[in-house]
Design goal:
This protein has two helices and two strands. The N and C termini lie far apart (89 Å). It has 116 residues and is α+β, with helices and mostly antiparallel strands.
C-alpha cells in the first residue's frame, strides 16, 4: 500500500515533534525508574549498621624505659655475640673486588630487623 505524499513529507513541525520526543522520553523514563525503585525499596527492611570503635592504648606522657645506645660489636659466629644476639652482615652488602672483602659481621639483637 502506497501512502500519500503528505504523510511521508518531513516538515518543520514533524522535526520539532521528533526532537521533543527524543528529549522528553528519556527524562520521563528516568523519573519513572526512580519512582519504581523507590516503591521497591519501601518493601525491603532497613539494613543494620554496626559501628566499631577502636581502643587506644593508654600511653603515659613520660617514657617508662630508657633506651641505651650500645656500640656495634663485630663477630665471626653466633658464639662471639652475647645471649639474645645473633651474628650477621648488615647494611649494603657489596663485595669489593680489589680487596676481595665483604663488610664485617656484627651482632644484632634477636627479634629485630637487620638493616640491608
Amino acid at each position: 500500500m502506497k501512502l500519500p505524499k503528505s504523510f511521508t513529507t518531513v516538515t518543520p513541525l514533524s522535526k520539532a515533534i521528533a526532537l521533543s520526543m527524543f528529549i522528553i522520553f528519556p527524562i520521563f523514563a528516568f523519573f519513572l525508574g526512580m519512582y519504581y525503585q523507590q516503591s521497591i525499596d519501601t518493601n525491603i527492611p532497613p539494613k543494620v549498621v554496626v559501628e566499631y570503635k577502636m581502643l587506644r592504648p593508654n600511653i603515659s606522657p613520660t617514657p617508662s624505659t630508657m633506651v641505651t645506645v650500645t656500640r656495634i660489636q663485630t663477630c665471626t659466629s653466633n658464639n662471639d655475640c652475647p645471649d639474645g644476639y645473633f651474628c650477621t652482615r648488615s647494611g649494603p652488602i657489596m663485595y669489593n673486588p680489589k680487596t676481595k672483602a665483604l663488610p664485617p659481621m656484627t651482632c644484632h639483637k634477636s627479634g629485630t630487623v637487620v638493616p640491608l
